[in-house]
Amino acid sequence: MVAVTPQDGTRMRYAWRVCAVTSLGLVLIGIAGSTLNVALPTVVRHFRADALESGWILLSFLLVNTASLVLFGRVADLLGRREVYLAGFALFTVASLLAGLSPGVWFLIAMRVLQAIGAAMILANGTVIITDAFPPERLSQGMGVYIGTLSVAQLAGPTLGGLIAETAGWQWIFWVNVPAGLLALGVGAAILRKMPRRPKEPVDALGNVLVFAALSALLLALSTAGSSGPTSPVVLAGAGLFVVLVPLIVLAERRAPNPVLDLRLFGGRLLTCANLASFCNALARSALILVVALYFQAARGVDAFTAGLSVLPVPVGIGLASPIVGLLGQRISPYALSIGGAVMSAAGLGTLMLTADPGTPYWVIGIGLFVAGCGSGTFLTGNTTQVMRALPAGSLGVVNGFRVMVMNVGIVISVGLSLSVLTASVGPQVRAQVYAGTLSTLSPVAVGQLMDGFQRAYAVLFGVALIGAVLAALARQPQSAPQSAPARRDSTSR
After folding, report:
1. Where found, per UniProt (predicted)?
2. CB proximity list for 211: less than 8 A, separation 6 or greater
């Protein structure tokens, strides 16, 4: 039996307080995303937005958030993780307040960009702060709770978004973030300790610019391909710029003394396969709530609140699986949990693919959503723990930023790909009716065509989920794993 020292008890009390603060941040970001997924038709109708504007209300946040994650991971390594983390809360809160005051759709999109920058400052650092606070042998428990709070956000978000859209007005979709953001900022400032900074080093300005430009070009091309086609000038220009910038990034980062993206950290099989598996899982799951919410509103004609209730099995599954898996993490390896979660996610999506029909009973759809949610909760906890355990302490920030960035690229592609497949089946003349949630009142024939789109979208996501399961199986810990645990323990004791 291992004796528990007073120092261990003090550290665990602080670790759980840190977990509470960072989980609150994840709830804030999760609610902000999931409320708009369900309430998007209400916002679209208010601004009379066309299909391009409707897509950018969602994609502007994802594009900027994804492209800036690595930057803020590196900035936090150098300037202080606590300071950058709290500044992200402040920016996100102000942007949410202004978003509710938007006079037009493009002002709203601009505020979504500011929200994305604040969210990147939060997301790039939350996981690292938890990893630094918990002993390695207890990390899976903390990570299970942290990931589980995402389900709280997703559980409350769709229902809250639908209720707000139907009663208080679309502005409150953003204003509900303000008191939560102020609370998170105050509690975080009171609880989080200053973390040791890395020695002052010159920032890799060229690398930052090149990485941001490349990601922005790629994600712009991917998001535009669905609405404008793969041969549109924007898609071709974005893809071409990305192809040109990638070798320049490799060359610049190899020569930089302090690269923003240290390519040597991603050469091992574990990190490569684990990050690719995370990408596939994000791509397979992330548009699920949005797609199902559109299904219930556009195909079945229900209101936003009812649609929010209909997608609850996904966050319920995540909420049940994540903390349970966190406890099992002391007996079952994160590697095994990652594989099991990826397989469950594929099973849930396969169920939805086989039952894509307007007459499908609600309980059948609910089973598919619940299994997919359980799989996501299991995979996220196992995969995140597996990656964070394998990293040296000095690179936690930038590698975690890269990890979250990879997931967000999957989210962007998932949203763009799913919406593209869905709307391609009904034609451009009624595409806006899908986003507005009014297709069911327009044409039964169009609804039937849309269901073909749903089935094809689920088939694509199901295939991606299976690839993710294979990659998770390949992400086996090598025998000579980096001994990063002592380094993390030392960093918290200084």
Report:
1. Cell membrane
2. 67, 70, 71, 249, 260, 261
Distances (CA, A) of 254 to 199, 207, 215, 264: 20, 10, 19, 9
CATH number of 10-193+260-493: 1.20.1250.20
- Chain-centroid distance, C-alpha 293: 18
Non-local CB neighbours of 6 within 8 Å, separated by 6+ positions? none
13 class by beta-carbon count within 10 Å (0-12 exposed, 13-18 middle, 19+ buried): exposed
**Would you say 54 and 40 are in contact if contact means Cβ atoms under 8 Å apart?**
yes
Q: Where are the alpha helices (DSSP H) in 256-395?
A: 269-285, 288-294, 304-310, 313-328, 334-354, 362-389
The amino acid at 416: G
Domains of the chain, residue spans: 10-193+260-493, 205-259
CA distance 38 to 52: 18
CB 381 within 8 A of CB 140: yes
Put residue 78 in one of left, alpha, beta given phi > 0 → left and psi -120 to 50 → alpha.
alpha
pTM of the complete model beyond 0.70: no
- Longest C-alpha distance within the chain, in Å? 70
Q: Which residues contact 166 (CB under 8 A, 6 or more apart)?
A: 42, 303, 304, 305
Letter for the amino acid at 126?
G
266's tokens: 């991603």
Distance CA 14, CA 381 (A): 21
Compute the distance between CA of residue 287 and CA of residue 309 in angstroms, rounded to an integer.
17
Give the model confidence (pLDDT) of 369-405 as tens digits.
899 989 988 998 888 888 777 766 555 555 666 676 6
Alpha-carbon distance of 260 to 241, in angstroms, equals 20
Q: Which two tokens stand for residue 302?
A: 């229900």
Task: Please tell me the total number of residues recorded for the chain in this structure.
Answer: 494
Which amino acid type is present at position 198?
R
Task: List the one residue out of 60, 38, 24 whose CA is nearest residue 192.
Answer: 24
- Which are the contacts of 350, defined by CB distance < 8 A and separation ≥ 6? 368, 462
* pLDDT at 478 > cutoff 60: no
